[in-house]
Amino acid sequence: MHQMRFRDPAGAVRTGEYDEESDAVTAAGRTYDVDDVDVLPPCEPSKVVCVGRNYVKHADERDEDVPDRPLLFLKPPNAVAGHGDTTPLPADRYVEHEAELAVVVGEQARNLDEADALDAVAGYTVANDVSNRTDQDREQNWVRGKAFDGACPLGPVLATPDEVPEDAAVELRVNGETRQSSSTEHFVFDVPALLAEITGYLTLEPGDVVLTGTPEGVDELTDGDSVTVEVEGVGTLEHTVERA
C-alpha cells in the first residue's frame, strides 16, 4: 500500500496507508474514506529541485538543445500544492502543464555516488510542473516562470521505490483529453545520475523533492481546466486551474 498524508475531519494531520481498491486511508487505528479527508502533499519539502529537458522529444518541441549535464532550477515551498487543489494561473500569461515523476528524498544527502544514490530515496510521487511560459521565455532564473504559488501540485500518495518500474508510464490528461503519454525509459539522465549531480552542489534534506523532467506534449492550461497526471506504480494526481 502507498502512504498518504491527510487532514482528518477533526483537523489533525496524519500519515496513513492508502488502499486504492477501497479508496480509503487508515491511520491511528481508524479508516477514512478519501472523500471525507483533505489530501495533503505527501511531503513538506524545503525545496523542489527540477530538471529541464530530460526527454529528447520535449527539448525538440521547445526547439531547444538537449543539455550535456542536467539542467537544474528550483521551485520554493510556496509552489507546492496537493491533490484536489486549485492552481491560480498568473494573469495574462501563457501557462503550460508538465507531467513528471517526482522523487522524494528520505535522508539528508550530499555528494551521493550514482551507485548508491537510490538509498537516499524514500519513494516516488506524481507532479505537474506548471509553467508560465510568457515569463520563463524572457528570464534566465525562471522565478516568474516556475515559482509562483501552487505551481507544483504533488501527490496524492508516496509509493515505495520497489513499486515503480524503471520504465514507468507517464500520462497527463486535460478535461479527459490525453496530452502527454510517454515513459521514464526515455530519460536523458536517470534518477541516480540526477541525485549525484544535484548533491554535488547542494544538500538535499528529508522531504525534499526532485522533479525528473517532462515528456513531449506540453500544452496550454486555461481557466477552469481539470488536470489528471498518472505515473505507473504511483497513482493519479488530480487538480484544477483557474485564472487569478
Automatic annotation (TrEMBL):
Example of a GO biological process term: carboxylic acid metabolic process
Domain Fumarylacetoacetase-like C-terminal: 47-241
Region of interest: Disordered: 1-24
Gene3D superfamilies in the record: Fumarylacetoacetase-like, C-terminal domain
Keywords: Metal-binding
GO molecular function, one term: acetylpyruvate hydrolase activity
A Pfam family per the record: FAA_hydrolase
Protein name per Swiss-Prot or TrEMBL: 2-keto-4-pentenoate hydratase/2-oxohepta-3-ene-1,7-dioic acid hydratase (Catechol pathway)
Organism, scientific name: Halobacterium jilantaiense
